[in-house]
Backbone:
């Protein structure tokens, strides 16, 4: 995987971890601004932390194509729910923040689950796979 792709994936995960900290530590203040209960902000922070950690931990173990597809899907949903949230708020509804934060509770957990169960990257030719399957069958007695 190219270095810039790896750096981009790690940066995406790090941004989620940073946003998790903001949402978790500022649950009352940020929640008040968005019209969202603090407990929902904390749930959102936990979900983002799980997803960001999974991205960073699995960056070398999953194909870049898997990350790219997941990030495109996640970010598309993020933009769409932000637009819906803004339209609701503009129309006088108090549900705009809940729609947007609700997405950010569910989508990161789905992202992390799909990423965790996704296909393994092919091991570089210079390194042998780990585990019992890597043992030389000729050596077995």
Residues:
């Amino acid at each position: 995987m190219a270095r810039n792709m790896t750096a981009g994936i790690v940066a995406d995960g790090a941004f989620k971890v940073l946003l998790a900290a903001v949402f978790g530590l500022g649950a009352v203040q940020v929640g008040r601004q968005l019209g969202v209960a603090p407990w929902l902000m904390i749930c959102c922070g936990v979900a983002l932390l799980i997803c960001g950690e999974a991205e960073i931990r699995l960056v070398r173990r999953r194909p870049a194509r898997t990350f790219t597809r997941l990030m495109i899907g996640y970010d598309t949903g993020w933009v769409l729910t932000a637009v819906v949230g803004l339209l609701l708020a503009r129309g006088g509804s108090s549900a705009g923040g809940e729609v947007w934060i609700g997405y950010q509770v569910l989508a990161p957990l789905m992202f992390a689950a799909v990423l965790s169960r996704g296909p393994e990257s092919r091991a570089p030719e210079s390194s042998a796979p780990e585990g019992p399957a890597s043992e030389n069958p000729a050596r077995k007695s």
Notes: The chain has five helices and no strands.
